[in-house]
Amino acid sequence: MDDHKSEGLSWADQWDPEPLPAAGDGGRRKGNRDNAGKSNAAKKFLTFQWVALITGGDSGIGRAVSYYFTLEGATVAFTYVKGQEVEDKDQTLKILHGIKAQGAKDPIALPTDVGFEESCKQVVDQVEGSCIINTASLAAYQGNQNLLDYSSTKGAIVAFTRSLSQQLISRGIHVNAVAPGPVWTPLQPTSTPAEKIAQLGSEVPLDRADEPYEIAPSYVFLASNDCASYITGQVVHPNGGSIVNA
Hints:
Elements: H1 3-13, E1 51-54, H2 60-71, E2 75-80, H3 86-99, E3 108-111, H4 117-125, E4 131-135, H5 139-142, H6 148-168, E5 174-178, H7 187-191, H8 194-197, H9 212-223, H10 225-228, E6 235-236
Parallel strand pairs: 1-2, 2-3, 4-5, 5-6
């Protein structure tokens, strides 16, 4: 197993918001920008008046998204599964407390499931002139013979994003999605055979899997009025160079 893939496995156990470079590559990894995982922009695109509600924000991509929204100045609330993810929740809250902007409210962890229709309706009814960002996948566009259910639901999310964007546009709510490629999350080592884990990401041009911190800025971009005020019904593809035509 090469360096960047073994690093991904360690990430699955404990996320480091400032990942270390792989050993033996001079402090850089193929396809990575310098100082990956750090925000060095002179201007923040969000302010503490923004509130970001992030589902599954206690680990994986959700934790990285929570981190970046907090880093950019937003107040963050995230959901987790009560009774199953308490340790992840506590660790995420500790990280977010350490970086929250002056004026922003403390991060909040919500033991709830917005998968229920009534919960979703309550969220949408309370926002005006805001945005919704869904998470799709490269599998929605390329398919995966071993992940039929997963690929199908991610394809549905793409269609849902496009349709919902048309339904909510009159209320000033933008709806977009992010479709990552293969990515190191805690789900990978628990759901993928060991022999395939060693090859995770080898199918994309960058020849490695994404790290969650490389995906999270796409969500901040889509939430920013400065960057994405003219974007709705679209999908952003941080997928390691795979070409998709939709």
